[in-house]
Amino acid sequence: MKSIKFFIPILSLIVLFTACKKDDVVPFEQTPDQDLIITIQEQYVNPPSRVSVFFKVETREGAPVAGLTEDNFTIYEKGRNDDVEKLLSQDETTRLLSDNSQLFEYRTMLLLDLSGSVLNNSLSELKEASIAFISDVFATESNTTNTVGIWWFDGQDLIHPLIDFTDDQEALRSAINNISPAISDDSSTDLFGAVIKSAALAENKLQLAQNQGILSAFSIIMFTDGTDQAARYSKVDAFSAVENASEGINFYTIGLGAEIDEAVLNRIGKTSSVFANDTQALTEKFEEVANLIADEANAYYLFEYCTPKRDGSGMNDLHIVAKKEDKEGRKITSFDATGFTNDCDLD
What we know:
Blueprint lengths: L14 E2 L10 H4 L5 E11 L3 E10 L13 E6 L7 E2 L7 E4 L5 E10 L2 H6 L1 H17 L5 E9 L6 E7 L2 H9 L13 H21 L3 E10 L10 H9 L5 E8 L5 H7 L3 E5 L5 H16 L2 E7 L8 E10 L2 E10 L11
Parallel strand pairs: 7-8, 7-10, 10-11, 11-12
Antiparallel strand pairs: 1-2, 2-3, 3-13, 4-5, 4-14, 6-13, 8-9, 14-15
């Protein structure tokens, strides 16, 4: 996991601390059959006693868990004088599940195959499905800053920008409507090159967000109706670009027709892959992925509380328990209370 540093107005960032302790022996966290998986993205502390943890919640199968509230979380602490972790009640500890919109941005990259087969046979259906996708992505209320950008590829050794990341739905729809059959000069398909280049673009955007003090995650949605024809890059290199991408980058694929290689698209779309047999089903598949994207963006949470631990207590264990219906998961991490003096203000 890459370290991410960001600035929060008024409250100065004091200590970054490790995501989990390797010597932790609490059995619950090590159990592989937890129903919910909590993955810490970042955590920090601020005096006089504020502890903040930014994390993602997924099911055991990797599906994002969106829409959780404060009531879905329970916190425990274990200090040096405790034999076991102790529940912190809301009477003892002020806590808050914060709005992520000022801290976290979610970028969605729509990457369209505009090779000759698409332009000649299914362009109108692709445009219709893409416009529906834009509407669906922005239809769900989000606690993050969402933007969408559109790129396309053909047989050339580059991915072409159609419109950069924006939350202007009308501009996105206009860009899609303006795609014409004459947009490409190369009817071939550089599928593997597009995978490699889009992964590199996502990495650069994540790094830029980090440099600006913003937490960020990224989704790449690739549409294609065929296989790699340019043979410019190897399948192995494309798979490697996906598998070695940062944890915050998600990959989706949408395949159309009988000429696709489902095994290849499943490897590229490691987060999710969907397939349409014909152009009539294309909009439905784009909508399916849009719903996944909306849940993905809303599965990140910033949980903050005022710890009762004070200066001199040293390192303390923090247990976060998430529950939704009959599903439960726990994450154990630690924080340093050095310099903590009294109750804090979470407003």
